[in-house]
Amino acid sequence: MRKPQGRKKKNTVGRPAKNANWLTPFCWTQIAHVAKQVGWDMSASAIAKGLRACDPITFAMTNRTTIDAWID
Known about the structure:
It contains 3 helices and no strands.
């Protein structure tokens, strides 16, 4: 029988995930507006900072990796 490996868990109850509905037109109008402000280089980190500055509650969990998936 295998012994447990690694550090023991302190919190056995997990947190519920915070999901955002990115398909709402409200979010995309703000995203398009901030992307125009950033410019043609489309820096994902600059867009994330701009979104958090524009609406910190809605875009609190938005990070660079999420925006990288949007930009082709």
